[in-house]
Amino acid sequence: MQQKVLVIEDSSTSLALLRKLVEQAGLKPVIATTLAEARHIFLHSDPEDYLCAIVDYHLPDAPNGEAIDYAIDSFIPTIVSTGNVDAVTRSVVLAKDVVDYIPKENAQVFDYLMRLLSRLEKNKGIGVIVADPKRQNRTAMAALLRRHNFITFECASTEEIDGLLSTYPNIKLLLIDSEVKGELPTQFVAHLRKSFNKETLAILGLSEDENNLLSARFIKSGANDFVKKPFCHEELLCRIMLNIDLIEKVETIRRTANTDYLTGLPNRRHFFYTVDQCKQSDLRYQSVALVDLDHFKQVNDSYGHDAGDAVLKAVAKRIAKHCSDMVVSRFGGEEFCIFLPNVPAEEAVKRIEVLRQHIAATPINYNGVSLPVTASIGLTINASGNIHELLTQADKLLYEAKSSGRNRVVHD
Asked: What pLDDT was estimated at residue 37?
């Protein structure tokens, strides 16, 4: 279900812009121009349907931020928009439990708002550690992060940090105070970098240090960033967003580089990398299967390349489902490859035969046309040697499967 954003705004110009931004973020704007209208809308709504609210500070029936209090009291994460950028208004707004505030001063601020909306949804799966020896400090910071939908973990020592990182793989950010208990924080950061690079775990150092030496020491030891305490609310959040965005962009680049664009399976390059990782551990058995679709050229020639693409996508899904515990890849064209680590010979033959039957069992529907699909498979079982030698042998067996009638598994 598409999540909603409650927009309480009386300016027609701002309202049009906010509506557009919310829609561009893939969310559904629910509009109110007064506090009374917002109350009426919310009486007939479920708070869980709303990702957040964007609330104007000054409204005709709520001139002093009363609509902000209403949204917060309704348990909706609240972003404040205001035409006032003075220090008094800022202080009043940030004294409330708001997600953030947006001064209506230029176009880039609204671009920030759109990124913030996107982040509020993404943050639901991201873990953040707040490491500070003082309970009051870490509790306050964790509360701020929870308004941004982060999953928060609080601790006071480096030993606890290690335990959390080994237990929760969704942790992407560590905020570590210079006075944290245990190992010297800068040395601990250097220790963490042996296991977590900057593209998988962002580390932000925090300190009340007055001489500015700690910031350089933290960053030289491997921290991504540093914030001096007492910190500026907006600066801390902006730095957190930038570092999390960077991690996600690197993840996207890696996924794109390692994935076949059509089928979503790992590509040939990633296949070899993954197999190399598997072979670094002791393998009692190793088998390789090469899967080639039969008469695939006839599909392209008769129905067009879109039909061929539909067949490849459908077969890729069947292979991925059946071989979820194996290393699979689209090698190119109509050819797929499967590496079976630590699978005994008899079981390897059985599983690949079941896969062949699974591929052939159901024709693929394309624009109302039923397209039968079968595959020939060459399987080399528990062979010694490197992956390239295994592939050469599997390719010979695949040729035998093709020449002996297709739609069959030939193994050594």
From this structure: 94
CA distance 115 to 37: 27
| C-alpha dist (Å) from residue 368 to 130, 181, 312, 363 | 56, 66, 17, 11
At position 113, the amino acid (one-letter code) is: L
Q: Write down all domains in the chain, each with its CATH number in brackets.
A: 4-105 (3.40.50.2300), 126-258 (3.40.50.2300), 268-411 (3.30.70.270)
Weakly modelled stretches of the chain, pLDDT under 50: none
Per-position b or e across 289-326, b if 16+ CB within 10 A of its CB: bbbbbbebeebeeebeeebbebbbebbbebbbebbeeb
Task: Calculate the CA 54 to chain-centre distance.
Answer: 25
**Nearest partner of 323 among 356, 292, 294, judged by Cα:** 356
93-111: per-residue pLDDT in tens?
Answer: 888 999 998 888 777 788 8
The Cα–Cα gap between 376 and 389 comes to 20
Selection from 56, 60, 64 nearest residue 82 by Cα: 56
Q: Tell me the C-alpha distance between 129 and 150, whole Å.
A: 10
Question: What pLDDT sits at residue 282?
Answer: 72
| Contact call for residues 79 and 67 (beta carbons, < 8 A) | no
pLDDT value, residue 402? 94
pLDDT given for residue 383 in this prediction = 67
- Tally the residues of the chain: 412
SS (H, E, C) 133-148: CCHHHHHHHHHHHHHC
Helices (H), 78-177: 87-94, 107-122, 135-147, 158-167
* Alpha-carbon 67 to chain mean position: 33
24 contacts 50 by C-beta, under 8 angstroms: no
Q: What is the C-alpha R_g of the chain?
A: 28
98, 79 in Cβ contact below 8 A?
yes
Give the integer Cα–Cα distance in Å for 386 and 116: 48
Q: CB burial class (10 A; 0-12, 13-18, 19+) of residue 184?
A: middle
The pLDDT score that the predictor gives to residue 103 is 85
